[in-house]
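SAMPLE LOG
Freezer: B-3
Tube label: C17
Construct: single chain, 168 aa
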Amino acid sequence: MAVYAVYEPPKEAPDLFERTDKLAFVKEGFSSPAFFVPLLWLLFYRMWIEFGVLLLIYLALPVIFGTETHGQAVFAWVSLGIGIVFAFEANDLRAASLARRGYRLVGVASGRDRTEAERAFFTTWLPRQQMRPAIGGERNEPPRGQGEVPASAPRAEGEEVIGLFPRP
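STRUCTURE (predicted):
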């Protein structure tokens, strides 16, 4: 089961459907693309500071270990270790980068894959947003022809919430 942290940009879009497009889903755990192509992964997510730091680390390793045979073997193992550690921490670095840009955590979603997690998140998130006044003071209404998503049942007093889901 995949778990995603959902972040919303600091500048709220006036339209509800535009807001949903701008949400960032950050998967928790190991990132395979970050393991195989770490520098490209950082460029793709526009994480410039992290890109510079990792590039400096990879450029410094040959200088540190030298060109001898033993130094090359140690360099290869250290590079592999850095790649593994980076792949485990990449999504956390992405979350920190989003927070640094002003994004705020709006929820957590889980599912067998990203599609299922998004569906589960929007099933609970959209009804709450439709009741909230928009930036212009109007309510965000769903487009005509689409059915309403039923609101979740109210929680009883003292009922615990699992994980990072906020209490209503």
